[in-house]
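Section 5: illustrative case.
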């Protein structure tokens, strides 16, 4: 038995991943899934149609910044409404991701994906036809509900239908679709920014195309075989598995899924709602802490602030034209997308742990560079030379330089420019109905000719802006391959079968909650700590994340599901070292003995527990 285990263990290390659906159950040394194993086209089709959910997640979160530039003018949106339209989607996503675990167990993965694509479509229609801002808000909340369900269901579905040797790659491709969606959204934003009248309707409404495609695709696509088996629909599960595996012999895999479900049922951890069972079961509780911690630190390292703020960063660097700024923001999301591709390639080469650690270290250093850029800009902030009489007697006249003026949300900086030289500058109140102009004076008419003064809201002109721009690109290059996709990928692998949808629902919920928190607090944090203070704060948080990952994230690459579970059997933070218990190796093997009924038994040796399927 030990030799047999050793050979399987060796093979597991060499071959990469094993099925999440259940442990491999084939005969010891033959038919093991490996890179030469058949790659049934059908599974790619399934992954593509599911990852459209990731695309919609990226599209709907990304498209709003470009749409807002047109919307705020057409609908006279004040800062509060702009904030509401952006954050309501993310808030709704948090709620629906949290409830998605229950929906997944009750309705199944396929129905949840169908529901999500239906909601996306309805949301897209509401948004494109919205007559006023209230209906727009309803549309944004609707779309958020779809995003939440999709964000937690899609990785689970892909993991459950993928053959073992393709699982890691296919789940990470979902993250590629997220950043791809954000990139396409920014291109669509750029293209329709020329359509001044109603351009935003196309931007927001176009998401209906992929969602309708996904909806019709999933009418014909199958349910996860594991969910079917869990619900006792064994005949259907067998048919689906056989279809997904392209007609290969699936008896062994099928038996394994069934065996693992029966094992789960034997060991219900006291019964009750899954979340309580997770909290009572220490290894799964530890996995949940690691999964939620990763999602929390992903957001605390400021990705969405950096992406959202990128348009302002490029304005700060001297690009003042709205359209040019939109296209440069598209370049930012293209960078995010391209470097995610690097992550898909690296994940099986260097492993999840090293990729996440390297990514966080680079992310922290780039955040520090961004902070230094902002610090130098603040120290050399242009002085205010003109103090026009203020009819509103606002706080704006109290500032001596652009820095203080820019940090006050009620004021903006109005100036003339000669090359990099700023002159005739003043700090004046912003127009309450549009931040594009001042409330009165030279910068209030919104026209921008070379002899007209420039209106800078939220930023200051600075000759150190290149440091900030460089920091931004470096940040994305480090974040995108690791901290972007790994929290999603790792979460799809670390929970045992019974806890997978609830574990993913909780961690996705944590992701969305911290997304809202970081984006809602950014401007206030910047007001109190200044921009460089805010970015130094993110640097600190990324470093805390680094310590967390260093201490608590074990390497899951190339391990079987049972080995992954065992990684959480010991202490929570063991610096990635396998816990002593991980020597216990669980192995399912099939004995072709002549029994007509299936029976299951367990044998424990000094270094292994073997679950033997007897037939
Ligand atoms: O993994 C994704 C990705 O990195 C996106 O670019 C980001 O906007 C999301 O918040 C994140 O969850």
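Designed sequence:
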């Amino acid at each position: 038995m030990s030799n047999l285990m050793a050979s399987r263990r060796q093979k597991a290390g060499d071959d990469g991943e094993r099925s999440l659906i259940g442990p491999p159950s084939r005969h010891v040394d033959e038919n093991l899934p490996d890179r030469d194993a058949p790659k049934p086209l059908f599974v790619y089709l399934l992954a593509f149609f599911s990852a459209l959910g990731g695309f919609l997640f990226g599209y709907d979160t990304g498209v709003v910044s470009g749409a807002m530039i047109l919307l705020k003018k057409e609908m006279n949106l004040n800062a509060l409404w702009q904030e509401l339209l952006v954050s309501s989607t993310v808030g709704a996503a948090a709620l629906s991701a949290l409830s998605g675990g229950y929906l997944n167990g009750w309705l199944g993965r396929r129905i949840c994906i169908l529901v999500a694509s239906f909601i996306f479509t309805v949301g897209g229609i509401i948004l494109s036809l919205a007559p006023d801002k209230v209906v727009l808000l309803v549309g944004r909340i609707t779309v958020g509900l779809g995003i939440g369900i999709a964000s937690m269901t899609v990785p689970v579905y892909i993991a459950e239908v993928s053959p073992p040797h393709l699982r890691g790659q296919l789940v990470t491709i979902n993250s590629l679709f997220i950043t791809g969606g954000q990139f396409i959204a920014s291109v669509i934003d750029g293209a329709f920014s020329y359509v001044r009248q109603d351009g935003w309707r196309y931007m927001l409404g176009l998401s209906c195309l992929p969602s309708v495609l996904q909806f019709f695709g999933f009418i014909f696509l199958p349910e996860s075989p594991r969910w079917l088996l869990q619900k006792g629909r064994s005949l259907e599960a067998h048919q689906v598995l056989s279809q997904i595996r392209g007609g290969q012999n699936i008896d062994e895999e099928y038996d394994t899924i069934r065996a693992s479900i029966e094992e789960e049922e034997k060991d219900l951890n006291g019964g009750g709602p899954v979340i309580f069972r997770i909290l009572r079961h220490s290894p799964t509780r530890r996995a949940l802490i690691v999964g939620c911690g990763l999602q929390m630190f992903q957001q605390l390292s400021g990705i969405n602030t950096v992406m959202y703020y990128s348009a302002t960063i490029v304005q700060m660097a001297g690009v003042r034209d709205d359209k040019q700024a939109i296209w440069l923001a598209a370049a930012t999301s293209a960078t995010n997308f391209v470097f995610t591709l690097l992550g898909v390639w690296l994940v099986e080469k260097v492993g999840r742990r090293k990729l996440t650690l390297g990514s966080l270290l680079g992310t922290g250093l780039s955040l520090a560079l961004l902070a230094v850029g902002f610090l130098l800009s603040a120290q050399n902030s242009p002085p205010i030379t003109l103090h026009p009489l203020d009819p509103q007697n606002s706080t704006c006249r109290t500032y001596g330089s652009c820095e203080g003026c820019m940090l006050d949300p009620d004021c903006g900086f109005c100036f003339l420019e000669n090359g990099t030289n700023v002159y005739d500058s003043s700090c004046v109140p912003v127009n309450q109905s549009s931040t594009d102009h001042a409330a009165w004076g030279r910068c209030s008419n919104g026209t921008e000719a070379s002899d007209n003064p420039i209106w800078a809201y939220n930023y200051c002109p600075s000759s150190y802006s290149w440091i900030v721009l460089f920091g931004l690109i470096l940040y994305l290059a480090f974040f995108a391959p690791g901290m972007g996709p790994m929290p999603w990928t790792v979460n799809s692998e670390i929970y045992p079968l019974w806890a997978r949808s609830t574990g993913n629902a909780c961690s996705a919920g944590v992701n969305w909650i911290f997304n809202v928190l970081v984006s809602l607090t950014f401007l206030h944090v910047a007001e109190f700590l200044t921009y460089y203070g805010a970015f130094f704060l993110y640097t600190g948080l990324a470093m805390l994340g680094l310590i967390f990952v260093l201490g608590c994230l074990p390497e899951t690459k190339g391990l079987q599901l049972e080995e992954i579970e065992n990684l959480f059997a010991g202490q929570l933070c063991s610096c990635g070292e396998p816990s002593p218990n991980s020597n216990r190796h669980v192995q399912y093997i099939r004995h072709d003995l002549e029994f007509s009924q299936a029976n299951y038994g367990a044998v424990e040796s000094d270094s292994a527990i073997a679950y033997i399927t007897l037939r």
